[in-house]
Write a structure and sequence with these properties.
349 residues; alpha+beta; Beta-Lactamase; Beta-lactamase; 8-stranded antiparallel sheet; 3-stranded antiparallel sheet; 12 helices; Beta-lactam-related
Length: 349
Amino acid sequence: MTSMDAPAKAMGGRLTMQDKLAAGIASGLLRDLHVVLASQDGRIILEHYQAGVDESWGRPLGEVGFGPQTLHDLRSVTKSVVGLLYGIALDRKLVPPPDAPLLPHFPDYPDLIAASDRQGLRIEHALTMTLGLEWDEERPYTDPLNSEIAMEMAPDRYRFVLERPVVAQPGTRWIYSGGCVALVGELIRRGTGKALPEFARETLFEPLGIDRFEWIAGDDGVASAASGLRLSAADLLRIGELVLAKGLWNGDRIISQAWIEASLKPAIPTGDGLAYGRLWFISADATTALPGGEHPWIAGFGNGGQRLWLMPDAGIAAVIYSGKYNAPDAWVTPTRLWREIILANAGKA
């Protein structure tokens, strides 16, 4: 791929990070961006907003002029936020620990609880997407046979997830599944007695000073734990910085350090060069290069190019919002931006 350093070399000088971003957009190497916001050690090092065609959970919004306060779909970055919420609920002893059996916490389904092929299911398997149950999100999200879409259309979303055919022993195979996160969200609701958006508002958003958000719900009124959250980039960046601070915010403990560390520990390979923790993607080999050393990164990934990238060792957090929904190459622009601009220029902004 053509390097975004080329304009700098042609000009005989070094471009700033902001200049390189502008050059990448002007050249067409960085497409479909809506927002870029990055910080290092709590200091903003890159900020960009532009207008673009957008949607809200598949509903067209037309052309949107993005700014610091504009809400945007997180899509599956929502999953990583839900992972944090489970940790908060666990810290308060409102939900069962990850090693607890899963099905007894869904007593509505005695037939599934009694099924011999599901006895090994534990909450940890839902948190790491290793339930071993059939799930297909390889299909476009416009396809009713996509498992997340089928779950949203099902009369009972939790039965739909839990009765999927067993295709692997629990804990042995990673299968990307919004259904796993739906179960995690429901465990939070049952344990706390509060809908997911309400619990999030009280325990995570308000302590971080986040006062505007939307959480899209399905036809059954249940907020989508897999993909329904909408936040401004600045507010998602705060959540990322909270993770970098291992759960502390302005001296207050929001999430236990133990939960953060366990969530960011690789649990299983994803099969494409990455690993997965508790609803976070992780650089499996921990060898992402920065000047002066090598550092692991973690991330929440969302359909259309939504990203929350974190590099704890370097204190870097980055939010990227894009509008390339359902496109197979939506990963290209955020990945180039992360590698070639943010990481390559960390400390030089």
